[in-house]
Structures are given as C-alpha cells and as structure tokens.
Amino acid sequence: MALFDRLRKKHEDVGKDKKPTHAKDTAPKASAEKAVEKVEAPKEEKKAAKPRVLKSNTRHAHRVLIRPVLTEKTTRLTSNNQYVFAVPKTVSKIEVREAVFATYGVRPIHVTTSNVHGKSVNFGRLSGTQKSWKKAVVTLPTGKTIDVSN
C-alpha cells in the first residue's frame, strides 16, 4: 500500500487537476494522432490479411514422422488424399495428427495406424527377421495436399 501512497503524493504535488507528464507525452497532438492510427491500422490489416499456413512447434515432429512410405500402393492412395508414414511403435494417433499439422500445416481428418511385423529372411544358411514397425495412414481434407517426395 505504500506504493500507492507515493503515487498519490506525486499527483497532489503537481496539482489536483493535472497529472504528471512523461517525457514521451511532450506533444499531446502527436499521441492523439498515434492513437487514431493504432485504431485504424488493425482494420486495414484485417482487410489485407492473407490466409497463411500456421505451423506450430516442429521440435518433436521429426521424431514422430520417421519417413514417408513410398510404394506403388501408397502412391495410388495419394489420389484419395491419404498419405502413409513410418512412425515409432510407441506413437499414438493423436501424436501423428499433431506432427502432420506441425510439419505440413494441414489438419488431418483421420489417422489409422497398424503394426507391420518383420518378415523372416534367409541369408544362405543363416535365418533372421526384419524389424517390426508401425505404419500410419493419414487422411487429409479434400483439396489439401502435401509434398512427401523430399
């Protein structure tokens, strides 16, 4: 409360009708013009605002979307606005949706995930298996596309 007492005393010293002026307010006409410009400026910006792609934080998106899966079947799916990505096994559909929005700026309509089991492979007399991985099929709204060829 002592802070308010100090401010009140400053106002009383200058005068009851007057408030202390700051160095910036030396020209009251200029400040009034600035206030008018500030009010008019947002109206002009709203008219001239262009639709832009909003990309959020992409810090973890590269860890969620490992790589796009480019096969004959997945290239056919692009005509239906569906894109296929390899993702870690621990990732959920919500995390995939957020990563696609953060990376490409398009909100997916639907995300489907499936676990792909590794195939058994023979190398001469030795047998082994390929790694298991998770596949995410992302469906985008009609008219929206993304470039996964990079």
Q: How would you portray this structure in words?
A:
The strands form two sheets. This protein has a four-stranded antiparallel β-sheet. A two-stranded antiparallel sheet has the order 4-5. The protein has helices at 2-14, 28-48, 61-64, 72-77, 93-104; strands at 67-68, 82-87, 110-116, 120-123, 126-129, 133-139. It has five helices and six strands; from the N terminus they run H-H-H-E-H-E-H-E-E-E-E. The chain has a domain at 61-139: RRM (RNA recognition motif) domain (Alpha-Beta Plaits). The model has no long low-confidence stretch (mean pLDDT 79). It has 150 residues and is α+β, with helices and mostly antiparallel strands. The N and C termini lie far apart (62 Å).
Task: Write a compact overview of the structure shown.
The protein is of the alpha+beta class and 150 residues long. The protein has helices spanning 2-14, 28-48, 61-64, 72-77, 93-104, and strands at 67-68, 82-87, 110-116, 120-123, 126-129, 133-139. It has a domain at 61-139: Alpha-Beta Plaits.
